[in-house]
Amino acid sequence: MLAEELESAAVASAAGTWQAPQLAVVVPSYNERENVPLLYEKVTAALAGIPFEFIVVDDNSPDGTAQVVKDMARRHPNVRCLHRIGRRGLSSACIEGIAASAAPFVAVIDADLQHDETILPAMFARAQAGDDIVVGTRYAGSGSAGEGLSSTREAGSRLATRLSALLTGVTLSDPMSGFFLMRRQVFDEVAPTLSEDGFKILLDIIVSATRLRQRKRATLTIGEVPYRFRARHAGESKMSPLIVVQFLGLLLSKLSRGLLPTSFLLFGMVGGSGVFVHLATLWLTHERLGFNFTNAQLAATVVAMTTNFVLNNELTYADKKLHGARFWVGLFSFYAVCSIGALANVSVATWIYETSPDLFLAGIAGAVMSVVFNYSVTRVFTWR
Q1: How many helices (H) and strands (E) are present in the chain, helices listed first?
Q2: β-sheet bridge partners, residue 137
Q3: 29 phi and psi, to 5 degrees?
Q4: Looking at residue 246, what is its pLDDT?
Q5: Whether the Cβ atoms of residue 46 and residue 118 lie closer than 8 Å to each other
Q6: Which of 9, 49, 244, 262 could lock 253 by a disulfide, CB 3.0 to 4.6 Å apart?
Q7: Over the stretch 268-302, which tens digit does the pLDDT of each residue have?
């Protein structure tokens, strides 16, 4: 009886001091130990009076970001750390962070302090008033790229904006933004269809949610709040030309309505580049170095497979990138898989040609079979 009374008293005491968060602020991080504590202070000041939780999703940063966040969680009850081991990638980190919260509204903000946290209350108010998604934009109203983007990166960002509108039919001033707030209901509706590949999840969410609402003959309401993009506070930027290629892969995946995963499209793009590498190496070794055709073909095959592996490791599977000894083990497993894929290519092409002697059709079918086989098997054995 006494135990029950003590438990009831504890629950009543907790209920009197704890408020359920109305907003979850999700912060994907990798090597951001110097930035996260300051970001928490700034977000806390900005959201004064609004119950929120601060969820940092860290991809096992070698600089110890996860431990810093865990230390913060001991002092601040609204701080949580999702420490991911063996998984990397901004999109998948955002998905896991949002899914881990029960708050009715969720926001995503970068850890590097480039996003202006002072507009979070305005974004939250718009969502409460009815907007499904509210985007922090650099390219509308009083917003600007400020000191946060070089002229080259800003030009690339604006090009991506035009491409996304052209290819998807969704018009947004800043689809490359990583700063947005939305209703949980929207995320729950589209979560099963989202791609975990790549570094730009906002466009994926918007396109998926728009199509879902259209099937239900409903509309997706998108609001925008302008802000000035700031320079990174500490650490190094994660932006690279590879991220731009991944973004293009996402656009193509959305055009196929998810039928072709982003990773498969990137794998195919890398395979296409391997054809040029193969032909260039074949010409160089046979015409300039004097190799006979068999040896030249063998050299070209090895060089093409090697460049394909390196590009896939950097681009297609950046979230599972192999390092050190695992890189070499992965390379030789890639050689083995692609060799089997070549046999599958020849077998399928030969069967089709014998059935219907169309050289072009047989060649294309064999190449497609090889790409599908290599993608499926290396995803399991090389980049598992």
Answers
A1: 13, 7
A2: 226
A3: -145, 150
A4: 66
A5: yes
A6: 262
A7: 888 888 888 888 888 898 888 988 877 887 888 88
pLDDT score at 152: 57
**221 Rama sector, left if φ>0, alpha if ψ -120 to 50, beta otherwise:** beta
- The answer for residues whose C-beta is within 8 angstroms of residue 35's C-beta and 6 or more apart is 29, 111, 112, 113, 233, 234, 235
DSSP state of 126: H
Cα separation, 243 vs 257, in Å, equals 21
pLDDT of residue 143: 65
- List for the chain the helix, strand, coil content (%; round to 5): 60, 10, 30
| CA 277 – CA 344 distance, rounded (Å) | 21
Rounded mean pLDDT of 92-101?
A: 94
Question: Whose CA is closest to 30, among 94, 77, 76?
Answer: 94
Residue 103 has a pLDDT of 97
Residues contacting 215, CB < 8 A, separation 6+: none
Strands 23-29 and 105-108: parallel
134: DSSP letter: E
Q: What is the DSSP string of 67-91?
A: HHHHHHHHH-TTEEEEE-SS---HH
Q: Which two tokens stand for residue 348?
A: 């399928």
Closest listed residue to residue 96, CA positions, set 58, 148, 144: 58
Q: What is the per-residue pLDDT across 14-25, written as a single tens digit (0 to 9) for each?
A: 444 678 999 999
CA separation for the pair 254, 204 (Å, rounded): 7
Own/partner pairs, 207-216, CB within 8 angstroms, 24+ separation? 207/168, 207/170, 207/254, 208/254, 208/258, 209/132, 209/133, 210/170, 211/257
Spell out the residues 6+ positions from residue 193 whose beta carbon is closer than 8 angstroms to its own: 208, 212, 258
- Residue from 266, 272, 345 nearest 304 by CA: 272
Residue in this structure with the two tokens 């497609």, named with its chain if needed: 368
Would you list the DSSP string of 196-229?
-SSS--HHHHHHHHHHHHHHTT----EEEEE-BP
Place of tokens 């054995």: 381
